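thought: user wants a sequence for this fold. calling inverse folding tool.
action: design(structure=
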């Protein structure tokens, strides 16, 4: 009997201890306060500002997270997350201890947003117990709200551009603009301050891609530091110039000559183990890589006109292929590829001297993929000329060259069917029609009349 009463007492004591622990847990075992960080990607709220919200809590886990945007009396719920924390008596089991929300905050997502200031308010609840439920941790961030894009005023007139051609626009932008220029689809032509102008005028040289047959995508753009953007149409006249088509018959002999040479000089190209397959890799992938490298090169172009005369066409040459030919490549009676030829092929005698089309600076002088031995001359403001398939290079990287100065000799390196010069004009990475730049009248009308004293052409 005695032992029974003892064990009864032990059970009672044990029960009291468990109850004590449970009471202690249910009082003290709220999770630690969560930490909240709010990181906007832009210095304010405009059209759409990406904001990252990071919430961390240890041990028992997060419960509810809300993100609100507060302006005056109005609080708009932008996001809400509900997590299931562990019960206060559980020491294991699933829980969420960190969470990240990425929101787009701006006039595109929040109705009735007004200019001024707005507060981003994040509330994070931690796990509670049935006796204690501490208030949520609230973190706030005040940001300016601006919804008006920079103004644009076009000050030049008669913007006439042809498909594949180039043109100039002169304009002013409002003081909030941090980036301006001409956007044509995926191409960007940056604006520059107009040298010598008394006012705050800016200008951009731009081109219309050879395969774009209308100007609906051509816009003059000004953007502020929080992404407010104005994009206006400004083309007065557009001249379509449809692509010509051409057929290139690929012979085994031709590929046997060009493929091993290009492979040996272009470590990034893999031998496909088959002559035609390797040729096609070169014609597609290496061509694309070379185009990208030329676009990258234009980023380093001098912000001034290095030239002051019309561009020079290589004298005594016959044009074998002109700008914007859509070439279908045929092998063994089968169409195997299609590429656009975006330069002039000029032929005279073998190893003829190649002359710089204008004054500028040599920014590339090396073996350059499909173009073989190549020289690229920068003429400033994103305008460059390219001289390809050379048998020898005389130009030196980084050196200034005069118009008519020899850069090397014609040849047939790279993807060339015979001795000739491939000549391209590149404007901010886009290959444009050289015929315009060879034409003194075109330069007078499209550039000089708009740019005034910023561009003076010698011997008019
Ligand atoms: Zn060519």
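)
observation: tool returned 460 residues.
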């Amino acid at each position: 009997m005695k032992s029974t009463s003892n064990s009864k007492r032990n059970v009672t004591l044990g029960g009291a201890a468990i109850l004590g622990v449970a009471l202690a847990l249910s009082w003290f075992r709220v999770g630690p306060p969560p930490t909240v960080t709010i990181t906007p990607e832009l210095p304010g709220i405009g059209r759409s500002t990406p904001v990252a919200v990071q919430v961390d809590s240890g041990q028992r886990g997060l419960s509810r997270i809300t993100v609100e945007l507060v302006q005056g009396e109005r609080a708009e719920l932008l996001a809400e997350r509900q997590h299931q924390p562990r019960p206060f008596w559980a020491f294991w089991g699933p829980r969420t201890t960190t969470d990240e929300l990425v929101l787009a905050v701006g006039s595109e997502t929040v109705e009735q947003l007004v200019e001024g200031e707005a507060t981003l308010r994040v509330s994070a609840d931690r796990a509670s117990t049935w006796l204690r439920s501490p208030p949520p941790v609230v973190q706030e961030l005040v940001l300016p709200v601006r919804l008006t894009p920079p103004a644009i005023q076009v000050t030049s007139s008669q913007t006439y551009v042809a498909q594949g051609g180039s043109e100039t626009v002169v304009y002013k932008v409002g003081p909030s603009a941090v980036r301006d220029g001409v956007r044509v689809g995926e191409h960007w032509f940056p604006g520059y301050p107009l040298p010598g102008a008394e006012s705050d005028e800016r200008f951009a040289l731009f081109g219309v891609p050879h395969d774009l047959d209308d100007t609906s995508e051509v816009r003059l753009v000004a953007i502020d530091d929080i992404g407010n953007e104005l994009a206006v149409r400004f083309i007065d006249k557009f001249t379509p110039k449809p692509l010509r088509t051409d057929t290139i018959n690929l012979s085994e002999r031709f590929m046997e000559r060009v493929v091993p040479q290009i492979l040996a000089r272009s470590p990034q190209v893999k031998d496909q183990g088959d002559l035609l397959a390797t040729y096609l890799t070169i014609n597609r992938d290496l061509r694309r890589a070379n185009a990208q490298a030329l676009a990258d090169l234009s980023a380093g172009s001098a912000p001034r006109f290095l030239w002051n005369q019309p561009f020079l066409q290589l004298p005594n040459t016959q044009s074998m292929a002109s700008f914007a030919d859509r070439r279908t490549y045929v092998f063994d009676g089968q169409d195997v590829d299609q590429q656009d030829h975006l330069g002039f092929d000029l032929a005279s005698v073998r190893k003829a001297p190649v002359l710089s089309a204008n004054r500028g600076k040599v920014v590339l002088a090396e073996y350059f993929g499909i173009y073989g031995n190549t020289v690229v001359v920068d003429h400033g403001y994103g305008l460059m000329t390219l001289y390809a398939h050379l048998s020898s290079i005389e130009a030196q990287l980084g050196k200034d060259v005069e118009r008519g100065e020899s850069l090397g000799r014609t040849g047939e390196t790279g993807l060339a069917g015979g001795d000739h010069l491939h000549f391209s004009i590149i404007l901010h990475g886009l290959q444009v029609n050289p015929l315009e730049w060879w034409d003194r009248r075109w330069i007078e009308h499209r550039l000089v009349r708009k740019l005034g004293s910023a561009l003076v052409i010698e011997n008019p």
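thought: summarizing for user.
answer: Here is the designed sequence. Residues 244-428 form a domain with the Glucose Permease (Domain IIA) fold (CATH 2.70.70.10).
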